[in-house]
Amino acid sequence: MKYGTKALIMFSGGQDSATCLAWAIDKYDYIETVGFNYDQRHLVEMECRKTVLRKVRSSFPEWNKKIFDDHIVDLNSLGKISNTSLTRNMEITLNEEGLPSTFVPGRNLIFMNFAAAIAYRRGINTLIGGMCESDFSGYPDCRKETLDAQMKAISLGLDKEFILETPLMHMSKSEAWNLAEELGGKKLIDIIVEDSHSCYKGHRTTRYEWGYGCNACPACDLRSKGWLNYAS
After folding, report:
1. In whole angstroms, how far apart are CA 32 and each of 56, 69, 114, 180, 208?
2. CA-CA distance, 146 to 131, in Å (whole number)?
């Protein structure tokens, strides 16, 4: 694929989006970032994403030359209509279909629409996201089929071809750790471990080898198992 020069990354400040940021910097000359505040239970990620961006900028001067504007989209209404354990202080369980109660219906689809609206205004036609269907919690809006359909609708609706890059789509979490090391070495691994946030409960009091979290929610489970396989 021939890459353009600009890309907008949906950047939450978690392990996956931090790895995707490094991947994007390796492929593109001009990067903008966007974060979404949807009244999530782990709202601490909104602060962590700023820290990760700052640390990446200061630790990698050459990367810093490619990172430009950061955007924040207020989607509190999504949190208000989503009765999930990612937007409510409730126990994380599995429903009858086997989906964890952390699934926020339509979240990724909504994120992609808002990201495309920003990209359209900024003269960018490539979006980057950390969605993955090989090592994930089973969310249907992380599947490549879903994302391809959404991007087709976005391109038709904006009358402009948009591309979605998902570099982690077919990677396990341990492979994502390996990719981060390949791209940024120990410096990037240290930033992801110390400053990124994935825990659905928003816990940042206990530090494990793989970072901060509750060590019990689906996000922590995936991250810790991936780290174990990567570090062994």
Report:
1. 14, 5, 14, 19, 31
2. 11
Ordered domains of the chain (ranges, CATH): 6-231 (3.40.50.620)
Tokens linked to 158? 């904006």
What are the angstrom distances between the C-alpha of 90 and each of 36, 86, 95? 21, 8, 14
Beta strands in the chain (DSSP E): 6-10, 30-37, 67-74, 126-128, 163-165, 207-208, 211-212
pLDDT score of 1: 39
* pLDDT at residue number 177: 98
pTM of the predicted structure, to 2 decimals: 0.91
Q: What are phi and psi of 215, to 5 degrees?
A: 65, 25
- Write the CA distances from 184 to 37, 153, 188, 195, 230, integer angstroms: 28, 35, 5, 15, 15
Q: Which two tokens stand for residue 29?
A: 């000359």
Q: Supply angle C-alpha 162, 168, 173, rounded to 5.
A: 160
